[in-house]
Amino acid sequence: MIFNVDYMSFILSTLKRIVMQRKGLGLLLAAAAAYGYYKYSKMTPEQKNGLRDKGKNFVDKNLGGLGNLFGKKSSTPPVNGY
């Protein structure tokens, strides 16, 4: 699945608007991030590696087309010759 830049910027701006309009949602997101950090810090190195691999596989399968937007190098040279 490939997303274009305009669609992604629309999604991000919509999410930002929702978070800014609902003050409690921002606090909920901050609490979820803190809890996730706490749980990650308590994992063993084997569990951390397993979680990283699982996350990489998820991104590759579901969001593989976004890699080009975030600076993954492609094998083709630039078109303009520079």
What does this entry look like structurally?
The structure is a single chain. The chain is mostly helical. The protein has one domain (5-63). It contains three helices and no strands. Helix 1 crosses helix 2 (23-41). The two termini are 30 Å apart.
- Total strand count, please? 0
Number of domains: 1
Termini, distance in Å? 30 Å
Helix content: 55-70%
Radius of gyration: 18 Å
Mean pLDDT: 75
Order of helices and strands: HHH
Total of DSSP H or I helical runs spanning 4+ residues: 3
Strand content: under 5%
Main sheet record:
none
Secondary-structure class: mainly alpha
Form type: flat
- Contiguous runs where pLDDT drops below 50 for at least 5 residues: none
